[in-house]
Amino acid sequence: MRTLTLPEPIAKYFASEHNTEALAQCFKADAILKDDGHTYEGVDTITAFLAAASAKYHATSVPFDLQHSDGLHIVLAKVSGNFPGSPANLSYRFSLDRGLIDSLEINA
């Protein structure tokens, strides 16, 4: 089995998925997150959304592949939780800047 080595801010994002304070430290202050047709701007808005989603769905993400395209880090992860269609493989498209997440787009 291949060991997946993620860039540090991305590894920290997945390790912190249920810890709002730790998640906040992964993002730039003016970061953008796109998920399920919605756009969240700014670290406070992003972490509030992620905290609400964590409380509602109790999802756990397990990254299984890393690709690179046009300067983006694309992580494929198996996500299991209390939501229709669980488990699902999702794509996380990360843009990094100075060791922090600048933008993240999550797609099915």
TrEMBL record:
InterPro entries: NTF2-like_dom_sf (IPR032710)
Superkingdom of this protein's organism: Bacteria
Name used for this protein in its record: Nuclear transport factor 2 family protein
Biological source species: Duganella margarita
